[in-house]
Amino acid sequence: MLTVLTVKEAQKRIINSLSGKLTQIETIHAGGSLGRAAAENVFSPDMLPSFARSTMDGFAVRSADTFGASESIPALLKLKGSILMGKEPPSSLEPGEALSIPTGGMIPAGGDAVVMLEYCEVIGDQVAVYRPVAPFENTLQIGDDYKKGDIVIPSGRLIRSQDIGILSSMGIMQIKVYSMPRVVIFSTGDEIIPPGKKPKPGQIRDINGYALAALAGKYGGVPEYRGIVEDNKDVLYEAVLDALDTADIVLISGGSSVGTRDVAVQVIDELPEGGVYFHGVSMKPGKPLIYGMSRTTPIFGLSGNPVSAMFSFLLFVRPAIRSVQGLSPFPSFIPYVEARLDTNLSSPGGREDYVRVSLYEESTLKEEADVIWARPIFGGAGMLSTMVNGDGYFIIPRDVEGLPEGEKVKVYLF
Amino acid sequence: MLTVLTVKEAQKRIINSLSGKLTQIETIHAGGSLGRAAAENVFSPDMLPSFARSTMDGFAVRSADTFGASESIPALLKLKGSILMGKEPPSSLEPGEALSIPTGGMIPAGGDAVVMLEYCEVIGDQVAVYRPVAPFENTLQIGDDYKKGDIVIPSGRLIRSQDIGILSSMGIMQIKVYSMPRVVIFSTGDEIIPPGKKPKPGQIRDINGYALAALAGKYGGVPEYRGIVEDNKDVLYEAVLDALDTADIVLISGGSSVGTRDVAVQVIDELPEGGVYFHGVSMKPGKPLIYGMSRTTPIFGLSGNPVSAMFSFLLFVRPAIRSVQGLSPFPSFIPYVEARLDTNLSSPGGREDYVRVSLYEESTLKEEADVIWARPIFGGAGMLSTMVNGDGYFIIPRDVEGLPEGEKVKVYLF
Lengths: 414, 414
Fold this sequence. Notes:
- The structure is a homodimer of 414-residue chains.
- Chain A is an alpha/beta fold.
- Chain A has four domains: 7-24 and 181-323, MoaB/Mog-like domain (Molybdenum Cofactor Biosythetic Enzyme, Chain A, 3-Layer(aba) Sandwich); 25-46 and 151-178, Alpha-Beta Complex (Molybdopterin biosynthesis moea protein, domain 2), CATH 3.90.105.10; 53-140, Molybdopterin biosynthesis moea protein, domain 3 (Molybdopterin biosynthesis moeA protein, domain 3, Beta Complex); 337-413, MoeA, C-terminal, domain IV (Beta-clip, Beta Barrel), CATH 2.40.340.10.
- Chain A has helices spanning 7-17, 161-169, 208-218, 233-243, 258-270, 306-323, 385-388, and strands at residues 25-29, 42-43, 53-54, 58-61, 75-82, 97-101, 113-116, 120-123, 126-129, 139-140, 151-153, 174-178, 182-188, 192-193, 204-205, 222-229, 249-253, 274-279, 283-284, 290-294, 297-302, 337-341, 345-346, 352-362, 371-376, 392-396, 402-403, 408-413.
- In chain A, the strands form eight sheets. Chain A has a six-stranded mixed β-sheet with strand order 7-4-6-5-9-8, with no helix packed on it. In chain A, strands 16-13-17-21-20-18 form a six-stranded mixed β-sheet, sandwiched between helices. Chain A has a five-stranded mixed beta barrel with strand order 22-25-24-26-28.
- Chain A starts with 6 loop residues before the first helix and ends with a strand.
- At the A-B interface, helix 2, strand 15, helix 3, helix 5 and helix 7 of A face helix 2, strand 15, helix 3, helix 5 and helix 7 of B.
């Protein structure tokens, strides 16, 4: 007998079932690696910066020469010349000497600090320095950013633009990443017709095919929507079996009714080394999730109901897409907008309730700043308008049966 | 004389300068429209759903026939047959009749509600109904989701997966969107060499080219990195002039030193109908931003300093990329993670301070739940490690000179 799990339990079972499953490793150009998952530790091949640099426009000096300098008694240094961007300094600095230097210029041998332009005055071939500088002031020393051998990008890092920047600066233009998982999507249901066709009475157009493909693409997969499959065990079996040749993850959308869900369960059970792991999660919407595997490939049976399907995707498919790329299944920190509920809200309890809301700002008499309010969008899980008109959702935990107006909630944006 | 603006003033000037500037409108397949900006109001062509549907597995009934039904005295209805998914009902319902119906099935003429399977029992050719249902209970009526003529997607909407879903369900597979702006990127600076080359003393590899291209792509632009341009007025002028043929937005990265910044300012001033709008923003990092236009094309002079360049991008270039696609320059709501500062922090005041932080969770004795702490990453704006090792940043306002340990801050994730 298959029991209904909590969201956390269901997530844990999915993640456990995927332990050790990873997509292939490929080497790509670092410039195109945004949003990909690093499959190797990348180490700094050199010191960065590789030479001491100025962080200001001014004069390179020996800091000791400026000690005691003031507005009334400036230090007078011999101006020996100019350091040019991208060039070695024309000379080293002996005691009592200075060289003009631009931001990013190379600190000359003998020099250990830079005095900002604002605190200097050129008088003939001399520079009057009106403020002392400490050793290393206004400079970046060799290795300040990275030492040779430092880990720059750890394996399992989701690569961001600054990571691409640091790879460029180290001349590392190839990086090993996990392949983006191929997510094959089927829609099933005898009432479903392609979006391009006109429905007869009783029929509806496929909603989930393109919506799930968009989600899969957004969250790091390569979606492959294979269209509508007849709601028949043998036909669905053949279609999924064929998909297993190339798919890293299979999504079967459809089956809000008991009969259709049964077909998906049977198909998953009969696939090679197949089996359903669980069926049903105590959440709303999204309860009728089916999860199973054939060999090492995860197969999700999502509700045909578009709202349920999208929440199931966010809560269960997304962590799988991350996991098979070597990423932590969940980001360490998930951003939100804190808002106040603008009405009393009851919840049945016993299951997590994912409440779709629209947000709006309004000043209140009591508050100094504008307050962000969350207005629940009522309507069944079959109404996609609750998602389209919504800005995001918040979660009412299983053990809470309602929330009062004004309660602070964390809204996760769509 | 060019004055230093606040972040808000600078943003306002940029947005005002772009008023009326929009990229071309193109028609694309709705399935590929994720993240694109709608360029038309999309109206519902029909009622959705177009027929009354069941939201439960059960029996379609005339609700009046169930009034008064109870565990002890069920309503006994004649079971007339089964409604199949995707088909018209085999018959209408007369008083005292029921038809079995799956979730998503079409409600028969005469019927107005569905009794859940759990509250019914089939006895021969009759159904015993143990609970009354209200009119329309467990059904979705015609137009409940959308009425014909309702605005489904407003012009200026950034299209999300649920928007693609609703378009599919209405059979709208083509949508007009604004073209993604072409963002041409140059790196300048005599010290800059391509990432693939080995730097000589005084030289560094280009960081910003690929990092800015990644950001431009992430935030809705089509990046075109045109490499390193010599830090020479005539050369840069020719390169930018050439880019203006196709660019919607031009980024010139480089110029941490006064001399280099002057070159960028001169180039922008001398371009056809060119002019610098402002130069310098009271923020850290990112102060040396240059903004100008040639005809209607915005040109940003970003610091060569990678940290400054990235913050300038997020605060100033990103709104421009949104604006020229007909989107609001700033999202209505920006999500964050609330964290507590794990140390006392001083700030010079007089400018907005963008503090890079790493986040970590730790339970405290006083608190029930784990607390998220923000640890500032110290290091100059020339140190990209402050971004690479950071999870995000928070902002110290201009009029605040420091924050105490434990202060709550809103951290925006990278």
